[in-house]
Design brief:
about 220 residues, alpha/beta, nine-stranded mixed beta sheet, 6 helices, 13 strands
Length: about 220
């Protein structure tokens, strides 16, 4: 897992695994089965905020002239493409507010996927995106990257809408999901809070943190 810093342009995406102590600490609390839905929701939003710093590291800046209370000076502001955050429903919703705290001007789309409990294949049931989505940098978010099926399907859908600049952000990932996603979409940057050991026979990440949607919304 690498974190390129040489500034070179590449058609290949990168996989960035977060090593910041605050992120790892908060994920550790999220994993605990006794963590309440309230605390889980707050923590996943906080982790998403922290991860947004890394996912937006390559945003372009431009110089502008401003006036401080003391004098005029040259300051920096973000330029270039507008952004969109697209959570995969329903668990991805839990990450949106934390990201919007960092990039409040971003638009928000939604992609609904459900998993067939026998085949584990994803099925789309809802999609609502900004009208100008093809002109935006899109960050697709989902707390869990297990088989990679939902992420791959969501990116397929976004690419069909003409989007060229896509990133994927998740809290926990299984090695199998990372491999599947990088193989299907080698041009997409992937940002991960923590890589776990494996998946079990039910395609749950081990040790994981359970069903993120149920834990966010208190539905189990």
């Amino acid at each position: 897992m690498s974190r390129p810093r040489d500034g070179k342009v590449s058609t290949l995406g990168k996989v960035v695994v977060m090593d910041h102590p605050l992120i790892q600490h908060k994920i550790g609390i999220m994993r605990r089965k006794e963590t309440s839905s309230k605390d889980f929701r707050e923590l996943i939003g906080e982790v998403a905020s922290l991860m947004t710093y890394e996912a937006t590291r390559d945003l372009e800046l431009e110089d502008i002239e401003i006036e401080t209370p003391i004098c005029k000076c040259t300051a920096k502001q973000i330029c270039g493409k507008k952004m969109a955050i697209v959570p995969i429903l329903r668990a991805g919703i839990g990450m949106v507010d934390g990201m919007l705290a960092m990039i409040p001007a971003a638009r928000v789309g939604h992609i609904g996927m459900y998993r067939d409990e026998e085949t584990f294949e994803p099925h789309e049931y809802f999609c609502k995106l900004p009208a100008d989505v093809k002109d935006r940098q899109v960050i697709i978010v989902d707390p869990m990257l297990a088989t990679g099926g939902s992420a791959i399907a969501a990116i397929d859908l976004i690419k069909k809408r003409g989007v060229k600049d896509i990133k994927f952000l998740c809290t926990i990932a299984a090695p199998e999901g990372i491999e599947a996603l990088t193989k299907a979409h080698p041009d997409v940057d992937i940002y991960i809070g923590c890589v776990d050991e494996c998946m079990n026979e039910n395609c749950y990440i081990v040790p994981g943190l359970g069903d993120a949607g149920d834990r966010i919304f208190g539905t189990k």
